[in-house]
Amino acid sequence: MKYDDIYEAVKLIPRGKVATYGQIAALAGNPKGARAVGNALHKNPSPDTVPCYRVVNSQGKLSGRFAFGGPEIQKELLENDGIEVIDYTVDIIKYLADFTKDE
Fold this sequence. Notes:
Order of helices and strands: HEHHEHEEH
Shape: globular
CATH topology: Arc Repressor Mutant, subunit A
CATH superfamily: Winged helix-like DNA-binding domain superfamily/Winged helix DNA-binding domain
CATH class: Mainly Alpha
Distance between the termini: 26 Å
Radius of gyration: 12 Å
Strand content: 5-15%
Structural class: mainly alpha
Strand order of the largest sheet: 1-2
């Protein structure tokens, strides 16, 4: 799985939605590559065009080591997208992107 494939998958997350590391791994061609997604996102060369902050874990928890300044910055960016964040967690049922249909 190439980092560019991961970044392209992340760009598919619509504003107001989140995706899990596993979803992004599957979209990038390796359903078991969630850890590689985390590594790629930490090294994101284009945060202005690749919205890594929209990626959360499978329980909806924000990254404790968010690459752009920690979970507080990730929380702020998600809230700016219209996503409610409570205790550094998003409601995965409400906000999870569904890549099987157009949103």
